[in-house]
Structure formats: C-alpha cells, structure tokens
Amino acid sequence: MKLHICQPHGYCEGVMRAITIALNKRKEHPNTPIAILGMLVHNEFVIELLEKHNIMTINRPTIDGDNSYLGNLPKDTLIIFTAHGHPLYYEDLITSFGLTYIDATCPKVEITHDIINEALNNNQDIIYIGQSNHPETEAALSIDDKRIFLYDLNDKLDFSRVKHQTPKVVNQTTLAINELEHVHNHILENIPGAEIHDEICRATRMRQEAVKNIPADVDLIYIVGSTHSNNTKKLVDVARISHPHADVYHIQSVADITPHQYENKKSAAVAAGASTPLHVTREVINHLKQLPE
C-alpha cells in the first residue's frame, strides 16, 4: 500500500509548552500534590503520561458542580490550568481555598485574549466564534459576560443583541478554515462594519492545509487523535470534504485499525492532531508500512 504522511505531526508548540510546564513542576516539587484543572491537552495518552508522574487530572464538571472538592485537597496542592485557557473566576476560586495555581494557557490563545481586552478598553463589543462548552470558548467568554457575544457554530447568533456597529470578531483557534470563512461572511452580511480577526493558529492551519493537499488518488485516510480534540475533529471534517471518495477514519491509536478498513485499498494517508504524541502517530505509520502493496 502506498502511504502519504502529512506534515507536520507531533505536538504543536502550545501543547509541548503545557506538558513541559507540568513535568518541570513535578521535578521542582517532587513531593507536592499537583493537579490539572481539566485535561491539560485533549489527549488521553498525555493524561496517562502525567499520571505516571503522579500528576492527577480533575474533571472540570467536578469543580463547576461542587467547589467544595477543592477544599478537600491538601493545602500545598499546586493547580495547573490547561493549555486551552480557563474561566477567570477559577483564579479567585483556587486562591479562596488557599491553593496556588500555574497557568499553562497556550500563548496563541493568550493573543486572542489580548485582542479582546484591547477592544473592550476601546468600548467595542466582541463577537467570539467558537463552540459552546469548549474550554477555550468558556475562557474567552469569561473575560466579559455582557459585551462578548458567542457565535456558536451549532446555533449561530442573534445579531440584534450586538449594539456596536464595528464589533471586533475573534475566534477559537482550532476551527476549520473554510468553516470560519463562511461565518465571517455571515457576520459581515449582518454587520458590515465588523472588524474581522482570523485567530486560527498556525499549527491548526498547517495541518488542515496538509490534509487538503493529500493526493487525490488516496482512497483511505487516517486522522490520529483524541475524540476530545477539536483540532483533530476538524481535520476529519476537512478530509471528508476535500476527499469525498476516500474512506476517512478518526482513530486514537493503531489499536483502532482493522483489516476491513484497508481491504481493497491502494493508497493511504495519515494525519494527526496537534496534541497527538509523535510515537502514537508513528505506530500507525509503521503498521501501515507493513501492509502489502
């Protein structure tokens, strides 16, 4: 079987930075309880890696539903916020229980927050394009719950709520390029003076372009990454749109590959999300390389 490998694969800079922060804190504090408030990055293999270093993950719904959970943690527990950002009230919440926190928010996400804060200081409204309940979206909306309006990809936006004629438009960094262009056009049709900022991060953009550029004769595409990973799911969407005649599978690891998937297939491609460990993708690649042509 011919094999096309999409580049880049492996961790993006924001994911690598967050993992490095967590592991370095463990080295600096070998005996201190360390907990991530939510999935540090959206990949189960990374969560397993952290657990091996005695770094636990606290499900965010646990905190949102019952804050007293934090009060039961040892007072020297170090809390790490995830790469996606976090609701601002989490900071006060953590300190109210006498705990210390470290922020592992991706710098690309922080750039979006800076744009939002600058616009708010200039008395502009904000339209934020994202997915409701995604941690990156929740983090952005928490900056100002009265002047930031969510354009939910699943529910759009009631434009009558936006009073400013030139609102700033920003977005979740892991959206699909074509999807975002469509939303931008919809916003401009309703608010012609809107100021558009395309905040899809470079890592997301490069991976989506690589999937679009998979050779047309490829009839089997594997996208490797967690089902929790938005940027991985967008790669699946891009693959299905750009290669409608190929079979596209979203897999978490080589264990998800079955013979019926590649039966009678002549050419395959492999792409991976930005939080997928390199060794996981390489295992998929090596498995496919062993298949007869």
How does this model look, in words?
The chain has 293 residues and is α/β, with parallel strands linked by helices. The chain has three domains: 2-11 and 202-289, 4-hydroxy-3-methylbut-2-enyl diphosphate reductase, catalytic domain (Cobalt-precorrin-4 Transmethylase, domain 1), CATH 3.40.1010; 13-106, Rossmann fold; 108-196, 3-Layer(aba) Sandwich (Cobalt-precorrin-4 Transmethylase, domain 1). Helix content is 41%, strand content 18%. The chain is built from twelve helices and twelve strands. The chain has helices spanning 13-28, 44-52, 60-65, 68-71, 89-96, 107-121, 135-141, 177-190, 202-212, 230-242, 259-262, 278-289, and strands spanning 2-5, 34-37, 55-58, 78-81, 100-103, 126-130, 148-152, 168-171, 195-196, 220-224, 247-251, 267-272. The strands form three sheets. A four-stranded parallel β-sheet has the order 1-12-10-11, sandwiched between helices. Helix 2 links the parallel strand 2 and strand 3. Helix 9 packs parallel to helix 10. It is flat. It starts with a strand and ends with a helix.
Write the layout of secondary structure elements.
Blueprint: E1 2-5, H1 13-28, E2 34-37, H2 44-52, E3 55-58, H3 60-65, H4 68-71, E4 78-81, H5 89-96, E5 100-103, H6 107-121, E6 126-130, H7 135-141, E7 148-152, E8 168-171, H8 177-190, E9 195-196, H9 202-212, E10 220-224, H10 230-242, E11 247-251, H11 259-262, E12 267-272, H12 278-289
Parallel strand pairs: 1-12, 2-3, 2-4, 4-5, 6-7, 6-8, 8-9, 10-11, 10-12
